[in-house]
Known about the structure:
Shape: globular
Distance between the termini: 36 Å
Amino acid sequence: MLVRLILCFIFFMPAVQADSKQDPVIMGIDIDRFEFYNPEDDNIFILEGDAYLSQDAYIVALKTEIERKNGNTHESEVQFLYGVPISSYWDVYAGVRKDFKPDSRTWGVLSLDGLAPGFIEMTASVFLGEGAHTAARLELEYEMALSDRWTLTPEVEIYVTGQRDEAIRVGAGLSKIEASLLLSYNIHPQVAPYAGVKWSALYGETADYADGEDEESALVLGVKASF
């Protein structure tokens, strides 16, 4: 029922904003991370990005996150979102998230995206899934321009779950925190290779599922791009 309501919101809200249909449609693709790192001799590749269509007051976006570990897909999700601005710096999104790995399931998504005080980019998302599962994700990012080409970017991601989920080996409460510090160089206005350090830790029951492998850190290499 929740997913149906969100889909109705996505497809019928543009009709309410008919006056914006005279504005040009803007299309784009952003690759936020195409990244490699090697903690504990595990070869891990990560792809995070989105494709979007925007027209004045609304945005339709397709977001994806894929993690491959030693040649196998470890985590994979896709989100289909519809967004509208609620102020000069904030947009609200609603949509559907589909997980393929580590377990196939569907979630409803409600997300707030924008620029917090201190020029911190923030995305706060709530997920309502099948079987009354709930989760939340908070992503924070701050870009510090060191020069015209060099940028230092600290990032933090916090994931919280509403209940124990043995199918994906996650416990209730705070389950994971990831933090990274990335130094990027703009070789082109739309392309920026980067290097840095990444740290992640599991907490509570989620850490218990990890059998002692509840914290890791590693050097990372990657590239960001937009088209």
